[in-house]
Amino acid sequence: MKDQPLPALHLEVNPEHLHLFTTLLQSGIEVKTNAGTEMGHFLATLDGFTPEYIANTVETIFLNGSPVDDLKLTFSGKTPVLALSAAMPGLAGAIFRKNSFHSPLRTQTDSLHFEDKKQKEISVTLKLFNSIAKERGAALLRDGISIKADKLHNFLQKRDSLLNYIIAIRLNNNTLSKTALLPTLQQVTTIHLKISA
Known about the structure:
With 197 residues, the protein is α+β, with helices and mostly antiparallel strands. It is built from six helices and ten strands.
């Protein structure tokens, strides 16, 4: 049986405020790939994640909560979590930075080399932090992302001033009022979200 299409939610916002919505990407978006896909190949499919950008800007990579350096690591399990950050301050940032001189201070992560010969589809939860979310987030939001509806609900509920910057809301091409947005998000599990200016 084919998966049902996700509810499509489109938020149109004031252009000068689009960047305020990029912190939503810290919550994690759902990106489909195949089990056994290398992280580097996965990132290369995302808009703006060129080899140069990954090498020069993505300084810290966490896979399932563990810092990693090797982009040839592959995804395994039903819901792997990949978090990306630019350089973080202090000793912790130095320890977790990829290929860092201080990386021996980390907990050993060699066991993260996975092999999964079944090329089944999995959903990677991708989290983007700090300047990476700011620099790449707007393009991802304009193109459309899949995200758990409760994450968007919580994001907007904690930042209710952002509702003032929304010009129009459409759910499956039907107009939705601002007052109906949060209650509607509580009625669905996962949505396909676009935020554009």
